[in-house]
Design brief:
With about 230 residues, the chain is an alpha/beta fold. Helices cover about 40% and strands about 20% of the residues. Helix 1 crosses helix 6, helix 4 runs parallel beside helix 5 and helix 6 crosses helix 7. The chain binds NADP nicotinamide-adenine-dinucleotide phosphate.
């Protein structure tokens, strides 16, 4: 498969790139900073310089053309203000969807975030704005005629992945290693039965592939404290 990853130099994106390249996929990583080009090449990806807050749809569509799927793993990131939550976290995701539609690429995996259902519960104003932007990006994607999957991870960590997760439409708030988020995205890209689903993700007891397949069948995961303890 040919996969285009927006936010190609991000922490999840780099982990995902490694996994996809290792299984023989072709990865195009979108970066806004030319200084990141070499890092992507060293991972085996093809870099493309695209700023998702200032590019025209046609420019992005040109890069996306011929892909089997796009993944939105970009984000304004910590320290960015409320304006960039809208221009990047909402607007960038919408621009990628516009480009996918224009290029005829149907599959779109959006990395959203847990908490979008209750943005007002967040403690600071910028985080409320971030969650609203993520909620708007989800709503926008669902309104499109694309083969979308929305993935809402809990709090991201740089801990080593366990290969075990809890992946369901609603899960209790928790955290999840970026390694495991990347593995779940790689699984979602391979599993058409997850098209049209919104799935929340935290650390758990289910093997990633089994969790993705169960989610596609609409079955609850079998994560339990026993399963986690047995690791
Ligand atoms: N942090 C959490 O706990 C959490 C929880 C749930 C979901 N998420 C979401 O998970 C996703 C990925 O997380 P992560 O930790 O991998 O993020 P990350 O390392 O901060 O990566 C985000 C990437 O987006 C890029 N980006 C920013 N503005 C851009 C623009 N205008 N055009 C193109 N690219 C741009 C950044 O590039 P530069 O290096 O050039 O800035 C960076 O490479 C994000 O959507 C985030 O909102 C985060």
């Amino acid at each position: 498969m040919r996969i285009v990853i927006a936010g190609g130099h991000g922490k999840i994106a780099q982990r995902l790139t490694r996994l996809l390249v290792a299984r023989g996929d072709t990865v195009v990583g979108l970066v806004r900073n030319p200084a990141h080009i070499e890092d992507l090449r060293s991972l085996g990806a093809t870099p493309a310089v695209v700023d998702l807050e200032s590019s025209a749809v046609d420019e992005v569509a040109e890069v996306v053309d011929g892909a089997d799927a796009v993944v939105f793993a970009a984000g304004a990131g910590p320290g960015s203000g409320a304006a960039r939550k809208d221009s990047m976290d909402r607007g960038g995701a919408a621009l990628l969807a516009d480009a996918a539609e224009r290029a005829g690429v149907r599959r779109y995996v959006l990395v959203s975030a847990m908490g979008v259902l209750e943005p007002e519960a967040a403690e600071d104003d910028v985080f409320v704005t971030y969650l609203r932007a993520k909620a708007a990006s989800e709503e926008d994607l669902r309104s499109r005629d694309l083969d979308w999957t929305v993935l809402r991870p809990g709090g991201l960590t740089d801990d080593r992945g366990t290969g075990r997760v809890l992946l369901e439409p609603r899960v209790p708030m928790g955290s999840v290693p970026r390694d495991d988020v990347a593995a779940v995205i790689a699984g979602l890209l391979d599993e058409p039965s997850t098209i049209g689903l919104t799935l929340e993700l935290v650390a758990g007891g289910d093997l990633v592939d089994a969790a993705v397949q169960a989610a596609g069948r609409g079955e609850p995961g079998d994560a339990s404290s026993d399963a986690i303890d047995e690791r």
